């Protein structure tokens, strides 16, 4: 814990230091440094294949992503060697862009398993994201883009993580659903609370920036070729990319 | 509702296995019972009006016409097993008759308990007369102490008349020294339906069976669901066969096979003999530990206008799926069991809720033990 010049105490939630990650024999992340304080939402942008999803999957603890160097500290605890379930129990959670289909596993049953003994009103929560009719369906089987995202958000509402990673929450979602999903995600990140009261943090991958209307992101980062190349105001970065594309981004071009 | 079933000489541990096989000693949610221990018929009765549960011997004495059904669906000379059963001077087993238009929603339970190193033989005849609907749960189990040499030979003949329906749910909870040789066949008439479910989640030495449904009647239907888990010492050679003979008849054969080191030969055959028939065969296998799943799906079409398909797949648990659930806070073991449970989730249409629940409960017991 550190005290800053702000009027409230700032807790460092996530520290990523010099993170190198391999998929198989190939290094795909080359020394990532990133720091996220409690209550902050950061945005991750960058061209396809730049390593954004890889970073999120690595942070969540997926075994395909081998950390060869560096360290991940979450709420002061070194989680670098932990499995996904241990990280989830410590408050990390993720909205997947393309979650797997699991035959025979009903969404409702999974929600019960996630909820454990907590007193979540699952039918009511499902209703709030228009998923009540899906509780008896196999998870993600035949779900549309928007249904997948609503199912992911619903799972996170019950999991209630302190640190939420969102991998393109708006992809494949129509305009009507974006508002629904955006509001639900905003609520996951306690955006309805005043800044000083917010304790939850987020890291969001977005290409379009539509989701930013609901998130009030604090900081933006641009990834290129497995490295974070620049930081800044997320809206300004987005505007710049929309105007000139990633190729024109000076930092990316240097590589 | 009749009083509690008395099963003399069965230990509490073995009673637990009876419960796992779907046998309710309290008779709750059951309308009738047949209980055979080794070669002794302990109990045979049914409270549902118009439905009779008799021992084979009683039934043959009571109804001369039963001869028309005796060894007609299954041939005496089929193999060594049928010859052995046919050669018995004192045949055992049960006869269940649902007379015209009767039905039971609460199933009849048939319990076959093998308590010593012997060959238990049964010959069962099950008849649903015109318009009748009959639901049976057959729980087969053996004493935990039973050593090598114990075997179960069971011949079952099913006759489903016009507009009638039989569902037969068989749950096996044997022990690892037992060999099991069911020999069963069903004959289905016009608009009749035969639903067969087989679940075996516990170790057994060997099970070999290949029940056949002959769909003679127009628009008759057969549906077989088979769920097996092979522990390292278990050997299953199981399957099901449907012969689509009547115009518009159809069949669906579904199998889920999991090996933890044992062998499962999963057979299936649909023969399309008549135009306007349809059949689908599906076998999904999951190899958790090195073992064998050998799927042999056969579809045999013989005329224009029969439509047959099959689908077979063998695979492993997907790491991606396990870690997806782990990222939601489930432990690796919980995630694995949850996915296997999903794999085994076969919903059977036309089955009373109490039987579907029984099947689910049997799988739940295995899930709790981590499969």
Describe the secondary-structure layout.
The complex is a heterodimer of chains A (255) and B (371).
Chain A: E1 12-23, E2 26-37, E3 41-45, H1 52-60, E4 65-74, E5 77-78, H2 84-89, E6 92-95, E7 102-106, H3 107-115, H4 122-128, E8 138-139, H5 145-159, E9 163-167, H6 175-188, E10 201-205, H7 212-215, E11 219-224, E12 227-232, H8 234-244, H9 250-253
Helix pairs in contact in A: 3-5, 5-6
Chain B: H1 12-20, E1 32-37, E2 40-46, E3 51-55, H2 56-62, H3 80-86, E4 94-98, E5 108-114, E6 119-128, E7 133-142, E8 151-160, E9 165-173, E10 179-188, E11 193-200, E12 206-209, E13 212-215, E14 221-230, E15 235-244, E16 250-259, E17 263-272, E18 277-287, E19 292-301, E20 306-315, H4 319-326, H5 332-343, H6 353-368
Parallel strand pairs in B: 1-5, 4-6, 5-7, 6-8, 7-9, 8-10, 9-11, 10-12, 10-13, 11-14, 12-15, 13-15, 14-16, 15-17, 16-18, 17-19, 18-20
Antiparallel strand pairs in B: 1-2, 3-4
Helix pairs in contact in B: 4-5, 5-6
Shape of chain A: globular
* Integer average pLDDT of chain A: 91
> What is the first-to-last residue Cα distance of chain A?
36 Å
Tell me the major beta sheet of chain B: 10 strands, mixed
Q: How does the major sheet of chain A shape up?
A: 6 strands, mixed
In short:
The complex is a heterodimer of chains A (255) and B (371). By secondary structure, chain A is of the alpha/beta class.
């Amino acid at each position: 814990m550190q005290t800053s010049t702000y009027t409230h105490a700032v807790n460092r939630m996530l520290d990523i230091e010099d993170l190198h990650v391999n998929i198989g024999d190939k290094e795909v992340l080359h020394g990532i440094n990133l720091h996220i304080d409690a209550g902050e939402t950061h945005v991750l942008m960058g061209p396809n294949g730049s390593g954004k999803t890889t970073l999120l999957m690595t942070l969540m603890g997926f075994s395909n992503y081998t950390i060869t160097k560096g360290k991940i500290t979450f709420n002061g605890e070194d989680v670098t060697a932990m499995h996904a379930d241990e990280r989830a129990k410590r408050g990390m959670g993720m909205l997947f862009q393309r979650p797997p289909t699991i035959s025979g596993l009903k969404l409702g049953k999974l929600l019960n398993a996630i909820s454990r003994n907590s007193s979540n009103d699952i039918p009511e929560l499902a209703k709030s994201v228009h998923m009540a009719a899906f509780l008896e369906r196999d998870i993600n089987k035949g779900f549309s883009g928007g249904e997948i995202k609503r199912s992911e958000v619903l799972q996170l509402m019950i999991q209630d993580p302190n640190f939420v990673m969102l991998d393109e929450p708006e992809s494949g979602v129509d305009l009507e659903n974006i508002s629904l999903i955006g509001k639900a995600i905003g609520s996951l990140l306690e955006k309805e609370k005043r800044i000083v009261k917010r304790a939850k943090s987020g890291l969001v991958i977005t290409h379009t920036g539509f989701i930013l209307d609901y998130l009030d992101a604090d900081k933006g980062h641009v990834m290129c070729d497995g490295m974070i190349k620049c930081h800044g105001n997320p809206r300004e970065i987005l505007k710049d990319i929309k105007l000139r594309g990633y190729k024109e981004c000076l930092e990316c071009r240097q590589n | 509702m009749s009083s509690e079933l008395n099963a003399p000489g069965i230990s509490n541990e073995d009673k637990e296995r009876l419960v796992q096989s779907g046998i309710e000693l309290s008779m709750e949610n059951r309308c009738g019972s047949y209980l055979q221990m080794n070669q002794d018929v302990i109990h045979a009765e049914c409270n549902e009006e118009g439905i009779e549960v008799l021992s084979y011997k009683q039934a043959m004495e009571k109804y001369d016409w039963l001869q028309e059904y005796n060894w007609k669906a299954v041939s005496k000379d089929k193999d060594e097993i049928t010859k052995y059963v046919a050669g018995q001077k004192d045949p055992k087993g049960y006869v269940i008759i649902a007379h015209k238009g009767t039905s039971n929603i609460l199933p009849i339970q048939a319990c076959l308990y093998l308590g010593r190193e012997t060959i238990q033989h049964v010959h069962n005849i099950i008849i649903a007369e015109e318009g009748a609907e009959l639901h049976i749960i057959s729980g087969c189990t053996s004493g935990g102490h039973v050593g090598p040499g114990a075997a179960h030979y069971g011949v079952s003949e099913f006759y489903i008349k016009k507009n009638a329906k039989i569902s037969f749910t068989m749950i096996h909870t044997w022990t690892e020294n037992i060999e099991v040789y069911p020999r069963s066949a069903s004959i289905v008439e016009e608009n009749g339906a035969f639903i067969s479910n087989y679940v075996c989640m516990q170790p057994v030495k060997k099970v070999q069976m290949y029940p056949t449904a002959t769909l003679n009647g127009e628009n008759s239907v057969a549906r077989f669901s088979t769920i097996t888990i092979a522990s390292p010492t278990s050997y299953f050679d199981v399957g099901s066969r449907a012969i689509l003979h009547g115009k518009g008849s159809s069949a669906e054969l579904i199998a889920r096979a999991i090996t933890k080191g044992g062998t499962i030969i999963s057979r299936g055959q649909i023969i399309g003999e008549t135009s306007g028939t349809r059949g689908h065969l599906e076998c999904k296998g999951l190899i958790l530990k090195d073992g064998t799943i050998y799927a042999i799906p056969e579809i045999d079409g013989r005329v224009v206008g029969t439509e047959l398909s099959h689908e077979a797949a063998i695979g492993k648990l997907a790491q991606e799926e396990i870690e997806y659930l782990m990222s939601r806070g489930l432990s690796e073991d919980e995630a694995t069991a949850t996915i296997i449970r999903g794999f085994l989730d076969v919903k059977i249409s036309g089955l009373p809720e109490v039987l579907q629940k029984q099947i689910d409960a049997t799988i739940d017991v295995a899930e709790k033990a981590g499969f």
